Amino acid sequence: MTAVRRSRPAVLVVLLCAALGALCLLSIALGARAIPLDQVVQALTGHVPGPGGQAAENVVWTVRVPRTALGLTAGVALGLSGALMQALTRNPLADPGVLGVTAGAAFAIVLSIALLGVGSLFGYIWFGFAGALAASVLVYMLGRLGRSGLTPVKLALAGVAVTSLLSSLTGAIVLTDPEPLNRYRFWSAGSLAGQNAEVVRHILPFIAVGVVLALACAPALNSLALGEDVATALGRRLGLVRLQGVTAVMLLTGGAVAVIGPVVFIGLVVPHVARVLAQRAGIGPDQRWLLPLSAVLAPCLLLAADIAGRLIARPVEIQAGVLVAFIGGPFFIAMVRRRRLAEV
């Protein structure tokens, strides 16, 4: 019986990785042009014979593989940053989109286009990092105001207020300057389309460093969950832990937003699903498992939304960010209405 319980987490991870692999294959197979699954497999493993084989290979390798790789990379970044923020703040409503981090990155990127003429992805990323960090600090400071100090609901309200403000400022910039408007219209919906493999190579180093920093925080986050006094007594340097966590969130969110746009709610929904699965697998609230589970579940959600967006309104595509928001909005409302939030 003990051996069965110990094997549950490994089985859960294997099943989720298998589901992610299946979604990656579907993402490569499905699109505006219908390509048989056997030709997709042939294109991935070698050569597609017969007439039209070269065209199928070009579609697979130049369009769908980069799009899938981008969804995989950005999904890992957004899911892991959301789980990390919830653990750092001990706030079940924490999410890069809800707490203004995504809006801060988006505002800084648009500002760099309009005022400084930045035109390369490598330039966007740095401004995305700066905007994410500035928005995080602002929301945290606003959430601490008042007699009751920092609470989950106040932090969420501060995040909504900052997000609304930054979104309004971003809209004002793009309406007065046609150049950022043309780039912003498609990007702001949150999409995986229109990117190539070079884009993934640009953001991969930043996100890889963010993933390493986030996973390295897991033991300290388990101590922090017991309370700051207990964590300090256990020898945790909370200032260093928070600095490491904020750096990881900045790298993960800034890198993802710079490429796919401000996709919200992934970081909110995924960690809660990970906790439910972890509880059923007998893992409990162990961040050493919750963080990796979130990193696997988030790209599953993003790729599933992207695939659904291609199929629902063929030949027109619905952007993945729209479908994710459609799922995450009701989930966020349900979380806010839960009574026990006041006791977190």
TrEMBL record:
Pfam families referenced in this protein's UniProt entry, alphabetically = FecCD
* UniProt topology in membrane: Multi-pass membrane protein
Q: Where are the transmembrane segments?
A: 68-85, 97-118, 124-143, 155-175, 203-225, 246-269, 289-308, 320-337
Transport in keyword set? yes
- Supply the alphabetized keyword list: Cell membrane, Membrane, Transmembrane, Transmembrane helix, Transport
Where in the cell is the protein located? Cell membrane
PANTHER family in the record: FE(3+) DICITRATE TRANSPORT SYSTEM PERMEASE PROTEIN FECC-RELATED, FERRIC ENTEROBACTIN TRANSPORT SYSTEM PERMEASE PROTEIN
Q: Which family does it belong to?
A: Belongs to the binding-protein-dependent transport system permease family. FecCD subfamily.
Protein name, UniProt field: FecCD family ABC transporter permease
Q: Which organism is it from?
A: Sphaerisporangium aureirubrum
Upper classification of the source organism reads:
Bacteria, Bacillati, Actinomycetota, Actinomycetes, Streptosporangiales
